[in-house]
């Protein structure tokens, strides 16, 4: 059976190190990480994060559309939310993920987000990866 795929979302501006750590944990057990690609941030201080791997002449909303396609194609989404913070773009992505019925898990309970987060949906990456590998028979 195929390995499950995950997209990891959160505030890349504030918590990129934590997001990269989650990416590495999922990849270490052989899971497919659809998004983000591990890459260097090239526009420090700007509102919308751009990566070295992004096409340099693409508009922000084009990059976001491509990213959203990857997120929605994932078996599940993991939200990195240190201190409960996620940011505006993550809130937008969560709305789209929620309307599609994609399973969502969180590193910590999220503040100021009007969606139900069940206690079992707050897990560390290693625990979640193990659970998903069993669930998908991978």
* Rg estimate, integer Å: 14 Å
Q: Kindly identify the CATH topology.
A: Rossmann fold
Class by helix and strand content? alpha/beta
Bin the strand percentage.
Answer: 5-15%
- The backbone outline, from C-alpha atoms, is globular
Structural account:
It is a single chain. This protein is an alpha/beta fold. The chain has a single domain (5-135), classed as Rossmann fold (3-Layer(aba) Sandwich), CATH 3.40.50. Helix content is 39%, strand content 14%. It is built from four helices and four strands. It has helices at residues 12-28, 60-72, 88-100, 125-135; strands at residues 5-10, 32-35, 76-80, 103-106. It has a four-stranded parallel β-sheet with strand order 2-1-3-4, sandwiched between helices. β3 (76-80), α3 (88-100) and β4 (103-106) form a beta-alpha-beta unit. The chain is globular and about 40 Å long. It starts with a strand and ends with a helix.
Features:
alpha/beta; Rossmann fold; 4-stranded parallel sheet; 39% helix; MazG nucleotide pyrophosphohydrolase
Helix and strand arrangement:
Layout: E1 5-10, H1 12-28, E2 32-35, H2 60-72, E3 76-80, H3 88-100, E4 103-106, H4 125-135
Parallel strand pairs: 1-2, 1-3, 3-4
Protein name: MazG nucleotide pyrophosphohydrolase
Can I get a quick summary?
The chain is an alpha/beta fold and 138 residues long.
